[in-house]
Amino acid sequence: MEPTVQVFWTPKKGNSQEEYEDAFGCAVEEGRFAIADGATESSFAEIWSTILTQKFISAPPEGQPPEHQSLINWVAPLQKEWHSNIMWDRLPWFAEEKARKGAFATFLGMEFNEEEEVEEGIMDKLLFMFKKQKNTGPRWRALTIGDSNMYQIRDDELITSWPLTKGIQFTHRPTLISSNPTANETVWDHFIYETGEFEEGDTFILATDAIAKWFLDRVELGEKPWHMLNKIKSEEDFSNLVAELRSGLKMQNDDTTIISIHWEESSADD
Amino acid sequence: MPYSAEISRTNPGCFIFLIDQSGSMIEPISGGDGRRKCDIVSDSINRLLHNLIIKCARGEGIRDFYELAVVGYGATVAPGFSGPLAGRDIVALSEVANNPARVEERVKDLDDGAGGIIQQKTKFPVWFEPIAKGTTPMGAALDLAHHLLTGWCQSHNYSYPPIVINISDGEATDFGPEPQAEALTTLHTSDGNVLLLNIHISGENLTPIVFPDSDEDLPDEFARTLFEVSSPLPANMRELAKNENLTLGEEARGFAFNADMIELIRFLDIGTRSSTMR
């Protein structure tokens, strides 16, 4: 299998492209994809969301699922990187005070493995035959904090909506990961990990909150919003769709980002 | 629905603070450990501006979600900024941020997390100085707010309506404030009328009356007049007040009587912390 990957993004209406604070990262060869939504109330959130996504696609946290300590170890150098990206001595008093509070973001990272190798403990060895049958197909693994969401579509049906399953679950106060270590004391329990299988023909959509909520709202009305997304061929198409949904009050005015990953038979398999 | 406009740089919000600077403001405020009313009020305004600036700071600059003016009334009725902004009326928040009169260094007591107290130095920018001199020309102050907001409302028709917060410790001495307040609160944007919130602060240790929905429990004619000229609270402010564990009715007015130091700070917070900023 090989993925066809499309990324579309557009800033909040009224903001410039430079003020876009979502971020995305794709490492197609490695099968890793990530999105993050920098909290607009914080400063330098675009740097933080970019660092989170880029680090995940190059070196995701260790462990399946990652333990708290693994997450802490993973985030610590990212926080240093964020800090070193800011020209602290050039900031006026208010900008420095704001930045010292840290930047905040939601995050969702996914990794696809076509031939999953099962990590074998003693129990795994005893259950080898069972595991062999259950767990060795193509699998995805995902890690998230906050309200960015993932959808898996198979045979024109939504088969996974993760971690949120209803439009009403999107609030204005999602849990966020911060560039400031002191702001993260209670967040580690809020990281969620999930894994599942995938197959040829599946499409995955990673979405930041505004479009993710619209998507679930439409599903709840019995619609198939991926049909509208499938028609998008360019950034312009995407911007037009988002503008239309915002003006019809079907979508919140916010930075909006999707990654679409469609798995199909690879040409080498022919 | 009124009072639901999103506050943005294209359609900024506007605050006007009217500050009583009459001679009686030199007296101690209730709950202020002997500190003078004028000191507590100027500290509260400076801290409020500071918080608003931090809230709107992004990267190296400020996003101008708000414009604001401070008007002092006592011996004179005039714009109240000190320093580089002296004499200016409505100013964009970024100009306020970049032009404090001075930045003081203050010491703040912080919990050290182990049962002790540690002291931390913090920067305290000052834009507005304490003054206590003269009478209480509240009517003229409301007139000046009316003058400033007439043009503002015309040029910001899609903005959240301006919020005028009047802080005083006594009765108007200039045939105010009813006609002037009425004129002021007929000004409007497409999102609703100008909101007038009144805080009466007291030196006496009396129970504060905050956001009442009728004038029944108010002690005198002066209090009833201030209640009458105060705007009904829009839904988002009622929600903020309820989150502060205040009990208030659907008809609650933006009014506090006999406020002590704590109520003054809470009232200012609820009056300026809009839930619609994006």
Structure notes:
The complex is a heterodimer of chains A (270) and B (278). Chain A is an alpha+beta fold and 270 residues long. Chain A has one domain: PPM-type phosphatase domain (Phosphatase 2c, domain 1). Chain A has helices at 45-58, 68-84, 93-100, 122-126, 128-135, 209-220, 226-230, 235-247, and strands at 2-10, 22-27, 32-38, 104-113, 139-145, 149-154, 157-162, 177-178, 192-197, 203-207, 256-264. In chain A, strands 2, 3, 4, 5, 8 and 9 form a six-stranded antiparallel beta sheet that branches. In chain A, helix 1 crosses helix 2. The mean pLDDT of chain A is 92. In chain B, the strands form four sheets. In chain B, strands 1, 4, 5, 6, 9, 12, 13 and 14 form an eight-stranded mixed beta sheet that branches. A two-stranded antiparallel sheet of chain B has the order 2-3. At the A-B interface, helix 3 of A face helix 1, strand 2 and strand 3 of B.
